[in-house]
Amino acid sequence: MSDQxxxxxxxxxxxxxxxxxxxxxGPGVKKRDPILIADSVTRTFGGNTAxxxxxxxxxxxxxxxxxxxxxxxxxxxxxxLTGFDKPNSGNWTYDxxxxxxxxxxxxxxxxxxxxxxLTKSLALLSVMENxxxxxxxxxxxxxxxxxLPFLWRDQEKANTAKAMELLGRFKLDTKKDDYAASLSxxxxxxxxxxxxxxxxxxxxxxxxxxxxxxxxLTQSLLGHILGxxxxxxxxxxxxxxxxxxxxxxxxVIVMAEGKIVAEGYPSVVMQDQAVxxxxxxxxxxxxxxTLTGQLAVAEDIDPHLVxxxxxxxxxxxxxxEELAEEQNRTEQ
Amino acid sequence: xxxxxxxxAFGQLLSPQTIGFALAALGLAVHFGFGGLLNFGQAGFMxxxxxxxxxxxxxFGFPFWLSLVAAIIGAVIFAFILGIPTLRLRADxxxxxxxxxxxxxxxxxxxxxxxxxxxGSDGINGSSAAFDALNPIPPGRYxxxxxxxxxxxxxxxxxxxxxxxxxxxxxxxxxxxxWGRVIKGIREDEDAVRSLGKNVYAYKxxxxxLGGVLGALGAVVAIIPTSLQPENFGTQTTFFLxxxxxxxxxxxxxxxxxxxxxxxxxxxxxxGILSILVTNHIVPLxxxxxxxxxxxxxxxxxxxxxxxxxQGILGKKRETYFSV
Lengths: 332, 324
Fold this sequence. Notes:
The structure holds two protein chains of two kinds.
Chain A: H1 3-8, E1 21-22, E2 30-31, E3 34-45, E4 48-59, E5 63-67, H2 74-81, E6 89-94, E7 97-98, H3 104-109, E8 112-114, H4 127-134, H5 143-146, H6 153-169, H7 185-197, E9 203-207, H8 215-230, E10 234-238, H9 242-248, E11 251-256, E12 259-264, H10 266-269, H11 273-280, H12 291-301, H13 303-315, H14 317-331
Parallel strand pairs in A: 5-10, 5-11, 8-9, 9-10
Antiparallel strand pairs in A: 1-2, 3-4, 3-6, 6-7, 11-12
Helix pairs in contact in A: 4-7, 12-13, 13-14
Chain B: H1 5-11, H2 16-34, H3 42-59, H4 64-86, H5 91-108, H6 115-118, H7 129-133, E1 141-144, E2 147-150, H8 151-175, H9 178-188, H10 190-195, H11 200-223, H12 235-248, H13 254-279, H14 287-308
């Protein structure tokens, strides 16, 4: 593959595994070993520009988070990259091969597989059938060979074994004969991810994998995603859950109004003023369950609100005590 | 009172008409039940198959096997014409195009300019000559009165049910193969299947062709003992076929076959019963009203079926728990 040559002819310290980028960090920064490179990709709906990405590179064997406010064009960008939508202009390469204009099913065959924001489990197929469908290069999927079971029976057995192993990892093995329709929303997310992995992808693109998933399941999903990286896959995901982004992402790309507005390591990007303004909001790390938190937010919105809150606190001795306690704690 | 209608109704169990509708309904089950393709023009596939068969047999004097191949080719061409522009679009478009195309075929074959070729509104007689020439059964009457079959009746019944058996097994095998899994996946969500690297368009086209060919073969069986009549392939035929697959179970292989048998036996029985009731003045209906009344009964029965047993007679109950 071309990735070897790409890394040797640039003058960087290749021994530094942590170094993801080359040059100055900023939107569209070059990566040491990109798997996906997109150039001037635009998509407009009528007069509304949904996506206008000048240049972006996705680092190989890393977990990259794509964040941004609602309507930033994250999902549209996903759809364009995976062939589910056609851009007005633009080019992108995957593993050095041109991918623009390639239909969705061929994109998947090249090893770039995606999941959907609104989970697409195949309701009236069993969980196991859902999984088997994910396997690629199946001989029995040809209509003529399908009539002769002895041609594909062995492959089917191998796929079933592989599916069982994956289902076991995602704790769905006991559900294998149930219709996918009988699974809960979170389990369907798991099934969709497991099904995507049946094709042994190189790049996994997850569109909001945590939406509607309970905290315990979130933990195990995070583990699964980290596991993908250990197995040598690249992960690109869209997510609104900042906790998840901070925990597992190696790199964060921020989109707003169709453009890439910031890029960088998660801890650095979260402090970026442009990101805070566009997406997180000034009080993103404030706990609204506490009085001090509420006061801090109220200060920004309306000074009268602060007065009202303070009056309320002074009128109630219990609240006043609580506020004093909280302030003590923060000072310590 | 004359009760011979009862054995005659049960004669529908085996009749070529039942076979023809069983095959066409099986094709529609491939389209709609397994593949989610909303084809409202299955009568069009039947009509194209019937005309390709009859024209090549009668006008060109093709041997039977060649005419049969012609019928299959006709259905394949028709499937391409319908599928190429519509299968990339949403499911609704296919239904609009198919219902229109079936009507276009029905009107086109009746135009006087091509009547020497298609027989106009009279249709085509005598397409069974080449088929009967292959008949090994000695002439005579077979069966018990009033259900008597001539040698050629028996020949088409045997060949017809043989075809149902072979094609039923073929569809059953296909639907339990990885190919069938892709087809069923497309029914559930074609974008999901596309994201897994399957060429959805090609699979939909294959399903459209397979179901269409089954429709064409059904028409061949149905026209051999009688004649080819363009009016037999109106929209009513398509709706009969939908009734049959909903009755038997749209996502099963046996459902359309059993459904076709029940449909024709019940229709024939209800006609006989109504006829007795009307001629003996037991119900206040005229003989003119008698015909439409039985379709009203069929319609009500279908509504009750869809309400109380939406999966059909052979369908799995648990599938309906999740229907949207």
